[in-house]
Structure formats: C-alpha cells, structure tokens
Amino acid sequence: MSSIPLQSRLPKTYRIKEIRVETDMVKTFTFDGSLGAKPGQFVMVWLPGIDEVPMSVAYDDGAETKITFFAVGEMTKVLTHSNVGDLVGLRGPFGTYYEWDAGDHIVLVAGGYGAAPMYFVASEAVKNGCTLEAIVGARGKEHLLYLEELEGLQHCSLHVSTDDGSMGHKGYNTEVLDHLLAAAAAPIDKVFACGPEMMLKSVLTVCDKHKVPCSLSLERYMKCGFGVCGNCCVDPLGIRLCTDGPVMSGDLVRNIDEFGKYHRDAEGRKHEF
Amino acid sequence: MNLSQEVLGITFENPTVLASGIWGITAAGWKEVARNGAGGITTKSLWAKAHAGHRNPTIIETEHWMLNAVGLPDAGPEKAKEEISVYMEDHPVPLIANIVAGQIDDFAKAAEAIKPLKPDAFEVNISCPNVEDEFGKPFACSAPDAAKVTKAVRAVLGDDIPMFIKLSPNVENIGVIAKACQAEGAAGFTVINTVGPGMAIDLRSRMPILANKVGGLSGPAIKPIAVKCIADVYKATGGKCPIIGTGGVASGEDAIELMLAGATLIGIGTAVSKRGADVFHKVCDEMQYWCTNEGVDHIADLVGGMHRELASRKL
Questions:
Q1: How many whole angstroms separate alpha carbon A116 and alpha carbon A90?
Q2: What percent of chain A is predicted at pLDDT more than 70?
Q3: Which of A11, A124, B58, B137 could form a disulfide with B70 if both were Cys (CB 3.0 to 4.6 A apart)?
Q4: A44 and A11 in contact (C-beta within 8 Å)?
Q5: What pLDDT score does A1 carry?
Q6: Do A229 and B31 touch (CB under 8 A)?
Q7: What band does B94 get if pLDDT is binned at 50, 70 and 90?
Q8: pLDDT digit string, tens, across residues B247-263
Q9: Which of A10, A264, A265 faces B60 most closely, judged by CB atoms?
Q10: Torsion sign, CA atoms A35, A237, B266, B150
Q11: What is the pLDDT confidence band of residue B129, given thresholds at 50, 70 and 90?
Q12: Other Cβ atoms closer than 10 A to A108
C-alpha cells in the first residue's frame, strides 16, 4: 500500500481547458479534473515526446487543477506554445504541503513564480479563519504575479516589493517581511515562503531574528517525484526533497548544509547558486 | 535470532542491501539508507567517464509494477571519489560499488578508477535493459560476452576486492551465463536486474510514457521470475557463489522466499517507494518474526533451503 494512497505515479494526460497569460514569460494552464493536491505540493508535468518536469500546483479546488510556469527551461519553452485542447500529462500530487491551524495569523512571502502556490495557500487558509499578510516580490512591476487574486481575498492584506521600485517597496520582499515581523500589532504565528533559494535563505534569517517559525518550499532536480531515484537528496541529511519536502520547516532546513550553496543536476553534479 | 551474514569475508549485520539505482547518488543518501536499516549499500552505476541519462519520464509506477529507464546517469569518477570518500569516513555498513560500461575494456577502466577508493565489493552491471539503443544487447545476454567482462574486471580487482556480476533475467538460460562468469572468477552474483524491457502507453496522446519508450520492469510482479532465476544460478554454480537476490522483495516473507531459492543477501529497491524509507527495518523485523515463530536460529540456514528439501525428497 502506498503511504500516500491518492498519489498517482503514472501520468495521465489532460486537455488544457484554459490558458491565461500572466506576464511576458508566465502562463497559467487550467485542467479539468483534480489530483487532490494541497497547497505546496507539486506535480510532474509531462509534455509527450519532450520532457517531464516538477511544478508547484498553482490551484486545485477539487474540480480543476492549475499550473503557473515561467517559460525558461527547454521543456517550458515548448509548453508555453500549447493551445487550449492540447494534451499535457500530470502525475502526483507529490510531497509535503503547508500546514496551519484555524485562526492563524500567517505571513506569505512570494518571490517570482512562488506567488502561485502562495495564492493557493491563501485561498485555502482564509477558509479556516486565518488572517494573511501576503508579500509578493519581483524584479519589476511587469513580473509581479497573482496580485489581483490575493487582493480579492478577504482577510488577506497585500504587500508588494520590486527590485527596481516600479511598484510597492523598492527592494526585497524579505525587507518587507523584516518590517512586518517587527511592527506586527497581532502576533505572527507562521511564515510561509516560496521563491528562489537565496530569497528563502534570507527569509530563514529574518524569521530566526524574530523567532517566528517558518515553512519554506525548496527545489531540486527530480526524476521520479516519489522517493526512488535519489536525485533530490540533500547534504548532509540524505533526505529526499520529493518526500520530506518540498515544504520543510525552517528547523529542518537549517540542518541542510547545501541550502543556499549548491544543488545537483541530472547526473548528480554539484552547481553553486 | 541472528540476521547477520558473512559474505566473501564481509560482515553484513542484516541481509538487506539497497539495490543499485535507487536513492544511491550521494554519500548522504547512502548514510540515510543505512540509518533506515539497510545491511549494505549498492551505489548507482558508476562509469569510467560521465554519462548522461534519459529525459523524463524515467520512472513510473502502479500498484503492481514499476517501469524505469533512467539511463544510467553519472557524473564520472571525480564525483564518485568525492562521495565514496565522504561515505567511507563513517562507513556505517558495507558499500558495494556498482560499475557499468558500454564496452568490455571500459569495465576495466571503471574498476580501475573506483578500486583505490576501497569499496567493500564491486557489482558489475552487465544487464541494464535501458541502454540498448546506445550499446546493443546487454553483455549478460551472451555467455561469452559476460565471461569476457568478468575476466576484464577480475584482472583489475584480483583477489583484493570481491565482485558480484549482476545478471539479466531476459535470457534463455541464466545458469549457463552464471557458470561462464564463475569460470572467469566471479565471486558472486546479483540476480536479477529488471525484466523486459516493458512499455506503457498513454491512451489519449497515443505516446509511450517513458521518454526512452521502453524500460526495465520491477516491483511485486517480478518476484516469481527472481525466485526462479536465483534457483537456477544457485544450482548452476553448485551453491558456491553467494547471490544478492533482488526482484520484487517488499516484505520479510518475500526475502525468506528468495533465500530459500539460494540468495544470501537481499536487494531492495522498488519497495522503497511503497513501504517507505524504513522498508529495510520493516523487512528485517518481519524476517525476525517469521524465523522466531518457525524456530530458525540463523538466517544462513535458510539459504538454498529449497534445493536441500528437494534433494531430501529425491525430487
């Protein structure tokens, strides 16, 4: 018996129901059907004849599944040219997810494409009476994602930062986080973050400073997605990010020496961030 | 009840061994598997020089089987040196270095590159079914080829480090292949590599799911084939060559069945996904439980038990 019974380990192809252009480089695809994914979990997205890559689930409401992706890699550059009705394979959902208690006051830190899973968290957490502060950061205004959706949620306050100052705070979203944690009128129970690893490293430092627990979503190259290939093992713990992650507590991440330093490619070779 | 096994001068605290290709890329991963109860570790296949694997999808699974065509990716000896050195600092359980090559001479080169790192044993992968497009039929499918590889690696290793030859089930007579390798100095065998290859097709796109189109079959469905092949190799080699029995083992009773066929050690791979990282602890606990109930004091007594039973009944 599988430890996660709902998980599908064989891809099934779905037709793209809707395509939304988010920015120049980013699109959201909607598929008919749910994989039962929870916020923070990932799916393996397969383009037949091309490749299969892991992606965070942007949304799964029990009826539809969404993915939001940057067309930066070899596979996503092809995927971005897909049309409504085209077939894309999905298998999963895999990995850990963000967990909260009813009524929690949570800060969400989203960098780049990380805004999609953070919106998924927000939309579910508000149903449990949580209050949210969502900090969305990007290089510039044109790269910000999911602002309208987050703004449309009740009990969710939106904070924006851009490196170039074209919108919101000029600088990093972690600076906004530092300020929020220092000035919060009501205690902050948890910080959730998703984005580039160097941003996550900074989130961990800020959370340590303010003694607030955090959950971070890490990324590593993956093949199987369910704990067999070992490609996503992290040093020195040897645990697999696809089963013990991608969402991990700050306490666990602190023990991963390679965090913020290097990651491995398909052959297991180290590459520095 | 004692689960330890002495194999070719190496002590394994229990007979479970991480099968090659699973979770076996880094020293940290090997140590984590050891913490989860494995009695030994087999590395992912190591090449004499870097080798790229296949694109994804590479591994898919249902409740009955797993199909994989990872394509033996490896960053080459420099990375192997780094990882094996880190592992050997603690050396929690014996390490078996699995080597692979596309040409007979390159097996010797891989062995030469890894030998100075002093792994406890070598496993020679002559039976991967996932790289046929690149290298043709595996060496394990021909007795003369299998013997040539054995001889070449044996020339490098000498009597210093024992080697297991990993055999393919996809042959007419696995016993003949094993005998040919035994004659050239194979100390033991790993039986079996994956079955097939097999194929799975996505109905809507009408495309094979694996990027390599075909892949090796593993998981519960192949256990009867493993049992049969182990029994054949045990018989053909007169029970003189220890066998790492591998194929579809997910429980203690599965492991005992393979031992009765002739296995001394038990490779576990696919079951890591279904029963979790601590499958090694679980299998050992189940073997303990079974042996205690059945009054078996040492698991070594089980090895080849079926053959002795048949002989005692003159069957």
A1: 17
A2: 98
A3: B58
A4: yes
A5: 35
A6: no
A7: very high
A8: 999 999 999 999 999 99
A9: A10
A10: positive
A11: confident
A12: 29
- The answer to whether A73 contacts chain B (CB < 8 Å) is no
**pLDDT in the model for residue B260:** 98
Please tell me the distance from the alpha carbon of residue A231 to that of residue B301, in angstroms, as a whole number. 38
Q: Do domains A8-94 and A105-272 have the same CATH topology?
A: no
Query: How far apart are the CA of A234 and the nearest CA of chain B, in angstroms?
Result: 7
The pLDDT value given to residue A6: 59
Confidence band, pLDDT 50/70/90 cuts, at residue B133: confident
**Can you read off the two tokens belonging to residue A167?**
């919108």
Q: Which CATH class is domain B5-312?
A: alpha beta
A109 contacts A174 by C-beta, under 8 angstroms: yes
B225 touches chain A (CB under 8 A): no
CATH number at A105-272: 3.40.50.80
pLDDT score at B160: 87
**Is A91's Cβ below 8 Å from some Cβ in B?**
yes
Q: What is the C-alpha separation between A247 and A95, in angstroms, rounded?
A: 8
| Mean per-residue pLDDT, B38-51 | 97
Question: In terms of DSSP H, where are the helices of chain A?
Answer: 74-79, 115-125, 147-151, 173-183, 197-210, 250-253
Contact yes or no for B261/B306 (Cβ under 8 A): yes
pLDDT above 50 for A12:
yes
What's the N-to-C CA distance of chain B in angstroms? 31
Domain ranges of chain A: 8-94, 105-272
What does the pLDDT read at residue A2? 39
Task: Give one DSSP letter per residue of A220-260, joined into a string.
Answer: ---SSSSSSS-TTB-TTT--BTTTT-SEEEHHHHTT-TTTT
Cα B203 to Cα A3: distance, rounded to the nearest angstrom: 27
Please state the domain extents for chain B.
5-312
